[in-house]
Structure formats: C-alpha cells, structure tokens
Amino acid sequence: MKVAIFSSKQYDQQFLRAANREGHELVFYEPRLTATTAPLAKDFPIVCVFINDQLDAETLEILADQGTQLVALRSAGFNNVDVAKATELGITVVRVPAYSPYSVAEHAVGMILMLNRKLYRAYNRVRDDNFSLEGLLGFDLHNCSVGIVGTGKIGQCFAQIMKGFGCQLLAYDPYPNPACIELGVTYMALEDLLAQSKIVSLHCPLMPQTHHIINAATLKVLQPGTMLINTSRGGLIDTPAVIDAIKSGQVGYLGIDVYEQEENLFFEDLSDTVIQDDHFQLLQSFPNVLITAHQAFFTRNALENIASTTLSNIGDFAAGRPCINQVKLT
Ligand code: NAD
User: Where would I find the D-isomer specific 2-hydroxyacid dehydrogenase catalytic domain in this sequence (predicted)?
Assistant: First the structure.
C-alpha cells in the first residue's frame, strides 16, 4: 500500500526501508505533517508520523477527505493526535507501544551523571588544558533519594538502573507496578515524593491530568537544590515556573530531553537562525541546565524496533487483520 511518511530523516528512511519486507510503497517527506502539508498525502491510504506532527481536527479532516484510513505513529506517545476526531472520521490510529524502554531510561541516567558531575564543563575545561576542579563538585548517587513519576516500562528500567547505584527509590503512579515494588520502590503521594527526593525523574505520559504536573505549586514542595529530569514530554513542566525555581535555587539542576514548544526547534539544524523563543534561550543560559533535543529514544536498537513494529502495524491493516497496537478512545 502507499504510505506517506512525514518528518522523515535519513535514518528513518534507512530503518523503514530495511523493515519493509512486504514491499509497501514508502514515500518519504521531510516536512512535519500539519494542515498546510497534509495535501502531500492526497490519495495515500496510510500516513506515517512522528511526535511533532500535528494531527489536530483540521489536519485529520483533510486527511480523511483525501482518502487516508490509517495513521501509523512511529512513537509510543500519541498526545499529538486528536484520537476522538480520528475515530469520528473512521481513521484508525496505531502506535509503537514499546521499542526500547532502555534507550530512554539510560539517557535519563546519562543526564543525571552529566549534571551531577558537570561532565559538560569538565570535558571543555580539560580540552582547554584547564585542570582545576573548582566548580565541579558533585554528590554520591549511593543512598540518594530518587523520585520516579510514572513507573511503566521506562520508569521500571530507570528504577532498575538507579537501584544499581544504591539509590533509595520513591515513586508516584496511580497504578503501582508490582515489578517495581519487588525492586524495593516505595510508592507514595506525589507531594510526598517531591518533598523527599533529591532527584525527580518524570516518566508518565502527557495527558490532561499530567499537563504541567510540575508547576509553581508543586515546585514549592521540592527540597532546595533538587535535580529535575524530564525525558517524557515537554508539557509535563510549566516552563516559566521552572525558570523561577532555577533562579530561586529550588531547582538546583534541570535536565530536559523534551520541551513544551519543541516542535518549532527540535530535529532541525537552526545554527544559523536567531531563535525567537525567549524561555528556551533563558534556559540555555543557565549553567545548571542540560538540554538535549529529544534524543533519548535514539539508539540503533530502538530505531530497528520502531521500524519493524510500524511495518507490522501497516501489514496488519493492509491485510485486514486486527491491529493489536491500535490507539483506542478511552
Ligand atoms: P507506559 O505506558 O509503559 O508507562 C506510563 C506510566 O505512567 C504508567 O505506569 C501509568 O500508570 C503512569 N501514569 C499514568 N498517569 C499518571 C499520572 N497522573 N501520574 C504519574 N504516573 C502516571 O509508558 P512508557 O513506555 O514508560 O513511556 C512513558 C513516556 O515516555 C511516554 O508517554 C512518552 O511520553 C515518553 N517517551 C519519551 C521518549 C523520548 O525519546 N524522550 C521516548 C519514548 C517515550
């Protein structure tokens, strides 16, 4: 079947072509899918998208009018899709529920080590023949209290790794994970977790209930100097509120792989552009903030799994088989 693949990079082409054993007609488009670019998918029964493609009501109506029947997400998160509208229009939405929770959990841990031991500063300093240790002081992770918000697949991997460091693991999740309880994770209310953790790592999905779960009120509960890590979705954090908390010292370190307005920035080379997002520029200016551009998933293993599950989702739909990875309206 004809598949229009949006937001595609060279690596998407490489892995999707390799996984395309059934010979679907894959057409790669670099632009993001929006209402403006949707006409590129005219007469394509299948549209394949990533996290910053915009599948709002307007885009979905254009797609439905043009004959699209399936939206195949190359991601686990589906907060960028108006699933109710897709259902109303008879468009099936499928996703890749798990491709490598290790990739994201390991990146979160990398951010913790980078911020704690100031490796970004140490690397540049030594290259400059400056061997001073001033300003590089860190803290032991052993015995450190680590709060995990969301203990699904990624949160569980993160808990396993942090247990290896000898951390005390605290968690908040409306649905506690028995595997995490077995690891020794202590579940508690969000407010208690925020008050007791030296490091807080976010691993819950972005939904109306979790939008700005980290806001001015919840930030006040933190211990001064807490490390906050977000590899989940930008919308979990109220950016102006976290900027205030960094300025006051309430947040001592911030590591983010995701940013609420990232669709205007991430995945592109903007090095010759004057970035207009003042909040982002302010965050970049702080010495205790580490930003990566939504790369936590970006391992060879994850890309292979994303490509094979996406092609198998497309194959199921094309053959009229039930789509096991369908996103259903809850
Ligand atoms: P998952 O569905 O396995 O786990 C999510 C967990 O969050 C579940 O245990 C659920 O009970 C819990 N949860 C639901 N509502 C909550 C709430 N209000 N407060 C706290 N926890 C709540 O998902 P996963 O595979 O672990 O992925 C988690 C998130 O990571 C995804 O939703 C996605 O946004 C993000 N992600 C980011 C990247 C990246 O590259 N940065 C890659 C993949 C996934």
Answer: 3-328
3-state secondary structure (DSSP) of residue 106: helix
Q: Is the ipTM beyond the 0.95 threshold?
A: yes
What tokens does 273 get?
């552009």
Tell me, in angstroms, the distance from the centre of ligand 1 to residue 96's CA.
Answer: 13
What pLDDT was estimated at residue 7? Answer: 97
Secondary element (H or E) of residue 120: helix 119-127
Just list the catalytic residues. Answer: 233, 262, 294
101 lines ligand 1 (CB under 6 A): yes
Q: Are residues 264 and 149 in the same domain?
A: yes
Whether residue 330 is contained in a domain is answered as no
Of 294, 283, 228, 285, residue with least CA distance to 258 = 294
Phi, psi for residue 229 in degrees, rounded to 5: -120, 130
Q: Cα(176)–Cα(196) distance, rounded to whole angstroms?
A: 18
Give, for ligand 1, the residue of 52, 74, 154, 157 to mutate: max count of ligand atoms closer than 8 Å to Cβ: 154
Query: Is 326 domain-assigned?
Result: no
- Token pair, residue 24, equals 């679907």
**Counting Cβ atoms within 10 Å, is residue 2 exposed (0-12), middle (13-18) or buried (19+)?**
middle
Name the region of 115 (left: φ>0; alpha: ψ -120 to 50; beta: rest).
alpha
In this predicted model, what pLDDT tens digit does every residue of 93-150 receive, in sequence order?
999 999 999 999 999 999 999 999 999 999 999 999 999 999 999 999 999 999 999 9
Q: Which two tokens stand for residue 234?
A: 């930008």
Quickly list H helices, 173-234: 178-183, 190-196, 216-221
pLDDT for position 279: 98
pLDDT digits (tens, 9 = 90+) for 8-34: 999 999 999 999 999 999 999 999 999
Same domain as 173, residue 143: yes
Closest ligand 1 atom to Cα of 79: 34
Q: Look at the chain and report how many structural domains it folds into.
A: 2
Checking if the pLDDT of 330 tops 80, the result is: no
